[in-house]
From TrEMBL:
It is found in: Membrane. InterPro entries: Proton_antipo_N. It is a multi-pass membrane protein. This is NADH-Ubiquinone oxidoreductase (complex I) chain 5 N-terminal domain-containing protein. It comes from Neisseria arctica. Residues 52-76 form the NADH-Ubiquinone oxidoreductase (complex I) chain 5 N-terminal domain. It comes from the Bacteria. GO terms for cellular component: membrane. Its main location: membrane. The keyword 4Fe-4S does not apply.
């Protein structure tokens, strides 16, 4: 997002640096989450952000679920 919006201002090497740092940070955080599941110190994360639609007895919610499979897929 930063590289796309401010690309003209930060130059080509700045775009590359921002993009590489973003990917590296994502990889490190994903590995940290996976390590927590492998070690056993982290349980699954299941939270609803908001309810998108309520119709009768049905609730359609938007949320996040991070379990062992999700953590593995974030690393891969």
């Amino acid at each position: 997002l930063i590289a796309g919006l401010f690309g003209n201002n930060i130059g080509r090497s700045g775009e590359h640096t921002v993009t590489i740092l973003g990917v590296a940070a994502s990889a490190v955080l994903s590995a940290y989450v996976l390590y927590g599941f492998i070690e056993g110190s982290r349980g699954k994360y299941d939270e609803n952000v908001y309810t998108w639609l309520t119709m009768g007895g049905l609730d359609f919610s938007v949320g996040f679920l991070v379990d062992r499979l999700t953590a593995m897929m974030m690393v891969v």
